[in-house]
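Give me the fold.
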Amino acid sequence: MKKIFTFAASTILISLLTLPIFAQNQEPMADRLEDRLKSDIFNVGILLQSEGVFSFNDDDFNGGRQFDLGATRLDIRGNVDNGFLYRFQLDFRRQTSILDAQVGYRFSDNMRIIAGAFKPFLSADLDPNPGNTDFMNRARQVGTMMNSREIGLTLLGEPGSFNYRIGIYNGTGLSRDNDNRFLYTARLGYTADLNGGTFELGFNGAFDETRMNNVGNTGLVSMGDRILYGGFVKLDTSTIFGTAEILQTTFDAANFGGNKETITGFYATIGSNVSAKDQLLVRWDHLDFDLRGDSSDLITAGWNHQATRLISFQLNLLALLEEDEDTQIGVSGVMQFQF
């Protein structure tokens, strides 16, 4: 009888200890959402972010001290008959605005063409949506040197281990303005399979003919024929991951009497999957302006936690280092639902 009681007690104890593990793996409500809203012909994506930011010194750094909405998006996409596809994505953060409005055609599993508003594929850090970025904010070179969306044509393909993205766009973002000149972009990448991971190498380039065009969020104006070029490497394994990328753009700056300005951006991220649900990571982000004469380094440490398949958290600690300026320190956090 004592042995039976001991065995029963041990069985109950093991069941109680393992119950949270099974509960975490079983998410019936997430399964029901996917069954109802995700299919090949009609796929609904939802991203909701609630964030808070705090600056210890300068109210202009890291957004000051406030709570805010992050990305607030509805994304609908799918495939239809005869190889055609579509996508329509809206953002509702401040006012309803179009992010993606695309109609495309799939020539094969490895080649498709997209017409409409699309990312220009000029930086590896621009590629993921805001719900999948390593940190709350992208590397600064993204906002500095490019628009996050362009309107035009994009040809994409993944032949074997290679991939390419070739685009021709208006070059003026989503403004729908044009001066009858275009932005031409190209990316060539290669992905190698490793034991338990992947290694990716890519090169980006662009030529922007548009006259008197704003250069990202810098306040600088290009008089035309702006060149952008760079490359990146990415490593992703079960334990560690990282990205290093350099990007440079040169153009005749109207702000400096037509003299040539060069902007250089570089970042390196290294991180570790410390558990099935947690990541610790750090990024060094460098930005330099030639004619404007300023450079800075932004160091960001992060913790990412995937609470469930649909709910996750990010916490970032930031330090901005500028020559002859006091170091700025800030902290940011976001809670998100992504489906």
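Residues 2-25 form the longest helix (24 residues).
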